[in-house]
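Tutorial handout. Part one gives the primary structure; part two gives the three-dimensional structure as tokens.
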Amino acid sequence: MKLIIDTESGEIVEESTAGKHTFALYSKESFEAISRIWLKVGWNQKFVYTFSWMGRPIIQLPEDMVRIQEVIYRVQPDVIIETGVAHGGSLVFYASLCKAMDRGRVVGVDVEIRAPNRRAIEEHALFPLITLIEGNSVAPEIVSEVRSQIKPGETALVILDSNHSKQHVLAEMEAYHEMVTPGSYLVVTDGIMIDLDDVPRGNPDWSWDNPVSAVDSFAKEHQEFVVESPSWPFNESQLSEEVTHWPSAWLRKLAVD
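Part two.
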């Protein structure tokens, strides 16, 4: 794809296999075209490695954090389960929301929680709202331990953010989807990989080996989930597309008849 930004004429020209299109520079279409390129360049430049939340590196796009905050506030989950711990920033973020809402707790699962990260998480003021489980997220004993953290009648929301290969994500979806409460979400992060097969830090195999491909496969077999981005509770713009690292991330569990 070729994108020509002409600030003098006030136009953007987008050329791709779908054809050539010209948009006014200050338009919804131009914003979306620029955002698609910005996401790829920003990912390659490790833009998301510049943020922290309450002292812990978070390694997430700020828009994605604000969007999931909107969903968590609406769903009011009793338990937020996240696979993939890293530095613990997202666990602290979710715990801070639970603290503010006076409801909920967080369970973090990772195949390896490095000692400095574990120590920093355990010393954090919000650690009383966090449970750490170390082990392979799809191992039966680990899945069972995570399930035991959900009490009868509690609402649960699950976020998958560990190994992002299609095979592993699909295995996690199969392992954790039953824990999701009707009306809540299974969130599959970092689907942006599907668009990063041609960037310097990317991998050609990501064109097929990515979380979006896992979601597509899972959704065909699980009609109890619908893939849809949550509506924005506030929007005074003409925009409708998210600027996100999480395309096709949101699987809402339907109510049981």
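Part three, for discussion. The chain has a mean pLDDT of 97. The helical segments are 28-44, 62-75, 89-101, 115-122, 140-147, 166-176, 211-221.
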